Amino acid sequence: MVSDLRHFDFAPRITGYAASAILASLIYVVWIAVSAAFSRVGAARPGLLFGFGFALVFLFVGGFALALLLMIVPWAIAVWVRLKTRWDGRLYFPGVGALLVFTLGCTIASIMPKPFWIDDQTFLEGAVIAAQREGICLLLSGIAFGACYRWLERREPSE
Questions:
Q1: Nearest by Cα to 130 from 145, 158, 149, 111
Q2: How high is the pLDDT of residue 6?
Q3: E runs forming strands in the chain
Q4: Residue 131 CB coordination number (10 Å)
Q5: Are 60 and 82 in contact (CB under 8 A)?
């Protein structure tokens, strides 16, 4: 039983989760900033600086930061499953990260408060709109999250 306790050392796991969340947030912010700055057709482009400001606000208002916060428990369960099953972490962590970030990101974006000029929508309509607008970004952020976590986990000294 004592040998199993070394797998549950929380400090490196919390550090790995935090670093992975920062990397995923950085990818999300850059994606949103670039798409906001260059998505307009014509001469009325807002610029890259405005895009980064918009992306930083949207990180919290759009629900991505909340999705990463709510992902702590499912991620802990995923890490526990990985420890019990001994599946290959090279595919497991990026796959689970992409699945969790995409699912929670679309769910949270659907239930976040909307400005008054946006039409009312059902939960499912909001989730579909979030998947259409941010799906690739959420998947890439989730893959980066899982890959970063796996890379940091592999760097831990094993006993």
A1: 111
A2: 52
A3: none
A4: 18
A5: no
Which of 71, 47, 82, 80 is closest to 142 using CA atoms? 71
Rounded to whole angstroms, the Cα distance separating 2 from 8 reads 11
The C-alpha atoms of residue 58 and residue 98 are separated, in whole angstroms, by: 20
Cα separation, 104 vs 150, in Å, equals: 20
| Residues of the chain scoring pLDDT < 70 | 1-9, 40-45, 115-118, 156-159
Per-residue pLDDT tens digits for 18-50 = 999 999 999 999 999 888 877 765 556 677 888
Contact status, residue 18 vs residue 149, Cβ threshold 8 Å: no
Residue pointed to by tokens 């208002």:
61
Residue labelled with tokens 């972490």? 89
Domain extents in the chain? 2-154
